[in-house]
Amino acid sequence: MGFDRRFALTLVGWLVACLFALIALTVAIATPGLAAVRIVAGLLVLGMVAGLLHHIDRTNRTVARFVEALRYGDFSTRFDGRGGAGFDTLGGALDAAMRGLQAQRDRTVEELRFLEALTDDVPVALLTVDADHGVTLVNKAARRLFAAHQGTRPEDFTVYGETFAARLADGAAPAAELLLLRSATGPQRAIVRNASLERLGLTTRAITVEPVQGTLDAIEMAAQTDLVRVLTHEILNSLTPVTSLASSTAEVLAEQEPDLDLARTAAGTLARRAEGLEYFIRSYRAVAHVPDPRRQRFKAASFVRDLERLFAAEWPDIRLETEVTHDLELDADPDLLAQALINLLRNAAQATRERDEHLLVELRLLGDGAGTRILVSDRGPGVPEAMRTEIFLPFFTTRAKGTGVGLNLVRQIVIAHGWTIEVGEGPESGAEFRVFVR
Predict the structure, then answer these.
(1) Closest by Cα among 342, 374, 378 to 360
(2) Please, which residues have CB within 8 angstroms of residue 434's CB and are 6 or more apart in sequence?
(3) Domains of the chain: which residue ranges?
């Protein structure tokens, strides 16, 4: 991109004028008696040089002002090529670039406004913590939730709970945890998540606070309803024959010549039913105990080999096929996880036994970029879709000799690790239990 033609012609004109002025000055100096002409010619030379320098400097100042506008983000500036400043082609290109930058900035500002509105209206409270500004309440939900204090220091938030204030001050706070917060409506539990971000060379922590007391209360009430329904069903099933046998025994013993053999038989049956009810109640106590995982990292392959030996000892006639991702490691309580998988494998073996032609159970531990999955599949009759949400309830069972405790214990162990579990259809019919490791 060369000089603009008008700029070049003007520059040549000034150079020619300077040249003629210099020639005139030289002639005047060489000719005696032309003192006045010499003065005029000298002034003319100075004028021509000044005009030439002004022409060049004007273009430089125009370009400099344009660059300065870019420096300070003034995208409304346009290149001024009037009065022979020159560089019209360059100016047109720069003007087009400025218009593009301004349009891009307008779009960016529009997008930022949308993101600010979205952040401000999102129903989860968002806070940021950094060294310069302390704790900042970013959105409306945060300002509503934390309206009972003054100040931006983490310790100013002690009014909502000492643990919560300590987490605000702790740069190594857990990524997610359930905390009890004090609020105007009373204590409530909330999920607090913590993440670190880099902003302008400084580390900023973003913290979300999601009150879940209402949700937890609803879930607790639903769980209590399900538990009472199952408990009353099972206890009434056990008490009905107990009541009947007790009444029959009393009637036999009330006769003038009681049939002691019949009474002993009835009493023996009554004792066995009472023992069964006691076993049921003891099972309920076991279900009510929430396990506390003691996590450690261990190789999945050796862990699965131990499960294979245990399964072969209990179910020698059923084949167990296993698959483990190479070098997969688990972060879990190995004892609790083994207990959960033994229960799942036992259920799978019992379901498979119902179909003698497919004596096969599969255990797969698969890990990839999306996470780790533990899959237990059988070739049994499967679990009807309508029952898939109920089989994890305490004491819910579809087997005549089942207690309904095993799968509930499995779910408790999975939840205690922070994982999730579901049941669906297996790859070859039957059921497949899937544990998603986080």
Answers:
(1) 378
(2) 373, 374, 375, 421, 422, 423, 424
(3) 5-109, 122-211, 215-288, 296-437
Burial label, 160 (beta-carbon count in 10 A; 0-12, 13-18, 19+): buried
Q: Which fold has domain 122-211?
A: Beta-Lactamase (3.30.450)
* pLDDT score recorded for residue 197: 86
Model confidence over 128-175: pLDDT tens digits? 998 888 999 999 999 999 988 889 999 999 999 999 999 998 877 888
Phi-psi region of 249 (alpha: psi -120 to 50; beta: other; left: phi over 0): alpha
Is there a contact between 209 and 125 (Cβ–Cβ < 8 Å)?
yes
What whole-number percentage of the chain has pLDDT above 70? 74
CA atoms of 130 and 57, how far apart (whole Å): 48
Distances (CA, A) of 417 to 50, 90, 262, 336: 84, 66, 53, 10
Domain 296-437 has CATH 3.30.565.10: yes
* Cα 246 versus chain centre, distance: 59
- What is the Cα–Cα distance from 260 to 266, expressed in whole angstroms? 10
The C-alpha R_g of the chain, in whole angstroms, comes to 43
Identity of the amino acid at 380: G
- pLDDT computed for residue 85 by the predictor: 47
Which letter does DSSP use for residue 296 in this model?
Answer: E
On the 0-12 / 13-18 / 19+ scale of CB atoms within 10 A, 38 is middle
Q: What is the mean pLDDT of the chain?
A: 79
Residue 289 is predicted with a pLDDT of 63
3 state SS of 206: strand
* Alpha-carbon gap, residue 194 to 150, rounded angstroms: 22
CB 426 within 8 A of CB 348: no
